[in-house]
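Human: I'm a chemist; would you kindly supply sequence and structure tokens for a protein?

Assistant:
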Amino acid sequence: MQLISKKNQNLMEEQDKDINIIFKPQIGLGDILFSFQENDIVKILGNPDEREIDVFNSSEYAINLYYYKINIHPSIYYENGEFDYSSISTEDIILDNVKFSSLTKDEIVKFIDDYHNKHGLQYLCKYEYEEDVNEECYFFENIGFTIWFEENTISDICVQRRRH
């Protein structure tokens, strides 16, 4: 039997939580590609802590996988029994070597605008404010990026491949 010191145990637990959060627009997040289905995701991240199926109507449903230790929540959407698209919710991303949790809300919005200009993309931004929960939402269609803020703090991030 191998004994692991408390210090090494804590280090191992921290490494378990470390995941590649590099966002590649229209491609994926880290090693998870937007073309992946459930089995592909499980091969990379292992079995989820929780799995649920949301049925929207007779032809549309989603499989949701929850990985609580690493704060990743992939969702795989199906229409008429066929793979439609996937999305990944997380607490933080890295885009062009910039970690979003280190920026303010205004810096993030400006950074995304600059990213669009740098890559020759039309800047398409949809803004919504939900007064009942005091939450702002910005959706950047051309890169498949949505971010929510509660009182100027990131509350959620969702990335996905744009539907055509």
Summary: Residues 1-17 have pLDDT under 50 and may be disordered. Residues 105-118 form the longest helix (14 residues). Helices lie at 6-17, 38-45, 105-118.
